[in-house]
Amino acid sequence: MFKQVFILCCLCLGVLPLSGQEELIHKADEVNQTIWSRFIGKDNLMYDYVGLDGEVVLPTPEECAADRPNALGWWTPIENGGFFNGMYLVAQCDRYERNKTPENREKVRRLVAGLCKLQDVGSTPGFIARGVGSDGKCHYAASSNDQNFPWFLGLGRYLETDIPTSEERQDCIERIRRQGEALQKLNWRIPGDRPNFERGWWLGSEYTACVHIATATRVLYEVTGEEKWKKLHYELIRGRMSDGRERKVCIASGPMNMAGWSAWFLSNCQYAVRILYLRETDPELKKYYAASLRNTARRAASLIPYYKRFRPSPDRKGFTPDWHTMMPPFAPQKNGKEAAALAMKQYEVWARKSPAVAQEKVWLKPALCAAWIVTLSEEADLKRNAMPEIRRMILGLDSTRLYYATFFYLENLVETLNKTASR
After folding, report:
1. Could you read off the pLDDT of 337-387 as tens digits, one per residue?
2. Nearest 5 degrees, angle CA 349-CA 354-CA 358?
3. Distance (Å, rounded) from C-alpha 156 to C-alpha 407?
4. Residue 240's beta-bridge partner residues?
5. pTM (2 decimals)?
6. Which of 34, 117, 217, 231 is most exposed, with the fewest beta carbons within 10 Å of its own?
């Protein structure tokens, strides 16, 4: 009776209450506004962090060349351009297909332009830059698995839309082909843009590497139509690794550990395994992928309540956009391993200087990514049990008070919920 009276009052006032799904979409729209007003730079790349008024301090060409603060660009605002643009592009393609406005189309195009730039600025075949500095082309020497993998995912998803012209479609296909061929020549090792700064290997025997190589080769054969990629894809999936296991078994097992620090890149893997699951026609392989989705989701579910421990900064004193404050410590680096060791020492300083970002990294990011992992699974009971907590987290988030860009995963989460609800 109360609900009927409430709706009648709303009608009299000319205001209709939002349905459950509309509430989530409305919150995703708020996040979208925040991301595009503050976090997407002039080079169409997402910054890791910015101030509440859009303050950002970009590395200069001299600083990138000198590996300052480190050759990975960790803790700078251009640390994760390939990673973030690729995964956000997935959500923006979904958003566009849900609401085909010129504005949403343009957002997809801009993210694609950013990913193309990351391939263009380097001089080493197979290199995908993490981001670009103050001149729009300078960049750090090291890339990683986590920059390359979302690059494939994002551009592969883009080609499924009706956005690209025939010329743009062909250009994108050629870029994906060129990247695949370059990595294959390197035996699937991820190159840096200088010698000794290689970081990552897709033929490794851990879960993430197995998902990366399986998905990249799937994207390659779907977008190019070339049989050689299809053949390689299935050889790798059914083949054995150095530890004697088949890759399909490794993927089915899911990640050995699910923790707050790993949920963000493992959510990307869950999205990729779902692609493999939905597109596979071999019943045996489909069972392996279903097992992977299930195992990963079950391990992630306990991370969703992390958001309750998140405490937004009450003022602006908990953040500085100036990453220079973490120097010292600094030391020259000869390779990627030295760069990573230096970066971990620097993080201790940076986390003290910007505790607001550290709070978001530790509590909010893993909760959003874990929720997406669960939503991507085929486990109806698990999703049903998690939904009350997921809804509270989504509806309680105020993106206007956040500094660290990974709250964009809320859009990925809501778009997936919307698609699965309409099935």
Report:
1. 999 999 999 999 999 999 999 999 999 999 999 999 999 997 999 999 999
2. 90
3. 23
4. 246
5. 0.94
6. 231
Query: What SS3 class is residue 211?
Result: helix
Rounded to an integer, what distance in angstroms lies between the CA atom of residue 47 and that of residue 49? 5
Q: Which residue in the block uniquely carries the two structure tokens 């729209």? A: 29
Q: What does the pLDDT read at residue 18?
A: 61
Q: How far is residue 328's CA from residue 46's CA, in Å, rounded to a whole number?
A: 27
What is the set of domains in the chain, with CATH numbers? 18-318+331-421 (1.50.10)
Contact of 404 with 365, CB cutoff 8 Å? yes
Contact present, 346 and 74 (Cβ < 8 Å): yes
Nearest to 306 by CA among 373, 401, 241: 373
Q: Which residues of the chain have pLDDT under 70?
A: 1-18, 422-423
Instruction: Name beta bridge partners: 189.
Output: 201
What is the predicted pLDDT for the residue at 326? 87
Distance CA 70, CA 63 (A): 9
Residue among 156, 151, 234, 154 nearest 200 (CA): 151
Which pLDDT score is estimated for 423? 62
Question: Who's near 148: CB < 8 A, 6+ residues apart?
Answer: 82, 128, 179, 183, 190, 200, 212, 216
| Cβ-based neighbour number of residue 44 at 10 Å | 20
- C-alpha span between 376 and 292 (Å, rounded): 11
Please say whether the beta carbons of 297 and 270 come within 8 A.
Answer: yes
Instruction: Evaluate whether 85 touches 46 at the Cβ level (below 8 Å).
Output: yes
Residue 396 backbone dihedrals phi, psi, to 5 degrees: -90, -5
From CA 320, how far away is CA 356, in angstroms rounded?
A: 9
Going by C-alpha positions, the residue among 303, 310, 221 that lies closest to residue 270 is 303
Query: By the 8 A CB rule, do 94 and 415 touch?
Result: yes
SS3 160: coil
Give, as one character, the DSSP assignment of residue 36.
Answer: I
